[in-house]
Amino acid sequence: MITINLIKDSNFEVTVKLKSTTQHKVHVSKDFYNLLTDGKVSYEYLIKASFEFLLERESNNSILSQFDLKLISHYFPEYEKEMMRRLKP
Question: What is this structure's pTM?
Answer without folding.
Answer: 0.95
